[in-house]
């Protein structure tokens, strides 16, 4: 388990949705900080090489060049276990300058709730 500065606890467990997932191990109020995780930002060229691999399912969008080439990042830590839902109960914010991704609860979570994020434009490619 990891404790963020806000005192909330999350844990990785088997998910009924897909493999493993991130779960609340305590009740968590809406808007709570769940964690700030480091990113390894990859070049546009690295992403192209990563697309046919399983690791591509775990990247976070960073930005896009004018020619449409995407730059993304691999997140380290438990956030990489968050599964997708269009009805997400958590939000994430990628800060390319700080090379971090921040995870917060969108709604109040009960102990045992799976923490879900919306993969947005990456959902079709990642699932």
Helix content: under 10%
Mean pLDDT: 86
Reported for the largest beta sheet, the result is: 5 strands, mixed
Strand content: 35-45%
CATH first level: which class? Mainly Beta
Oligomer: single chain
* Gross morphology: globular
The residue ranges in which pLDDT falls below 50 over 5 or more consecutive positions are: 1-7
Distance between the termini: 26 Å
Radius of gyration: 14 Å
What series of H and E elements makes up the topology?
Answer: EEEEHEEEEEEH
Determine the CATH superfamily. SET domain
Q: What is the number of helices?
A: 2
Structural class comes to mainly beta
E-strand count: 10
Protein name: SET domain-containing protein
Domain SET: 8-120
GO molecular function, one term: histone H3K37 methyltransferase activity
InterPro entries: SET7_MeTrfase (IPR009207), SET_dom (IPR001214), SET_dom_sf (IPR046341)
Descriptive terms for the model:
five-stranded mixed β-sheet; 41% strand; 2 helices; 127 residues; disordered N terminus; Beta-clip-like; five-stranded antiparallel β-sheet
Short description:
The protein has 127 residues and is mainly beta.
Secondary structure layout:
Blueprint lengths: L1 E2 L5 E6 L5 E5 L8 E9 L2 H7 L8 E6 L5 E6 L7 E2 L5 E6 L4 E6 L8 E4 L5 H4 L1
Parallel strand pairs: 7-10
Antiparallel strand pairs: 1-2, 2-3, 3-10, 4-6, 4-9, 5-6, 8-9
Question: What can you see in these coordinates?
Answer:
The protein is mainly beta. It has one domain (2-126): SET domain (Beta-clip-like). Helices cover 9% and strands 41% of the residues. The protein has helices spanning 44-50, 123-126; strands at residues 2-3, 9-14, 20-24, 33-41, 59-64, 70-75, 83-84, 90-95, 100-105, 114-117. The strands form two sheets. Strands 1-2-3-10-7 form a five-stranded mixed β-sheet, with no helix packed on it. Residues 1-7 have low confidence and may be disordered. This is SET domain-containing protein. One of its GO terms (molecular function) is histone H3K37 methyltransferase activity. Residues 8-120 form the SET domain.
């Amino acid at each position: 388990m990891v404790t963020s500065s806000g005192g909330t606890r999350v844990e990785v467990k088997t998910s009924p949705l897909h493999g493993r997932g991130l779960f609340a191990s305590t009740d968590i109020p809406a808007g709570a900080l769940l964690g700030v995780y480091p990113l390894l930002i990859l070049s546009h060229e690295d992403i192209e090489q990563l697309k046919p691999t399983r690791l591509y399912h775990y990247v976070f969008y960073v930005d896009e060049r004018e020619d449409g080439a995407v730059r993304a990042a691999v997140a380290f830590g438990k956030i990489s276990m968050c599964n997708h839902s269009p009805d997400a109960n958590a939000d994430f914010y990628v800060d390319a300058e700080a090379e971090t991704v921040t995870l917060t609860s969108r709604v109040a979570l009960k102990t045992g709730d799976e923490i879900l994020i919306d993969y947005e434009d990456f959902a079709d490619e990642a699932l």
